[in-house]
Automatic annotation (TrEMBL):
Organism: Pararhizobium antarcticum
Family: Belongs to the UPF0337 (CsbD) family.
Region (Disordered): 1-63
Start and end residues of each CsbD-like domain: 6-57
Biased composition (Basic and acidic residues): 28-43
Coiled-coil regions listed: none
Superkingdom of the organism of origin: Bacteria
InterPro entries named among the record's database cross-references: CsbD (IPR008462), YjbJ_sf (IPR036629)
Full protein name: CsbD-like domain-containing protein
Compositional bias of kind Polar residues: 1-16
Gene3D superfamilies recorded: YjbJ
One Pfam family it belongs to: CsbD
Length: 63
C-alpha cells in the first residue's frame, strides 16, 4: 500500500471507529464501543505508517 492509501484508509478507519464508539455508548453496547476503539487505533496506526513512508521517501529522494 502506498503512503497516500495508508493515510486515506487510516482516516476512514478512525472516522468509522469513532462512529461505532458513539453508537455503542448511545445504545449501551460495550462490544460495539470496543470494536470502534479498536478500529480507531488501527486507523491511527495506518495514518502513522503513511506519514512514515512519506518521511522515508523524502529522505531517500534527497540523497
Amino acid at each position: 500500500m502506498g503512503s497516500t492509501s495508508d493515510k486515506i484508509s487510516g482516516a476512514a478507519n478512525q472516522a468509522t471507529g469513532k462512529v461505532k464508539q458513539t453508537a455503542g455508548e448511545m445504545t449501551g453496547n460495550d462490544k460495539l464501543r470496543a470494536e470502534g476503539k479498536g478500529q480507531e487505533v488501527k486507523g491511527k496506526v495506518q495514518s502513522a505508517t503513511g506519514k512514515a513512508k512519506d518521511t522515508v521517501k523524502g529522505a531517500v529522494d534527497s540523497i
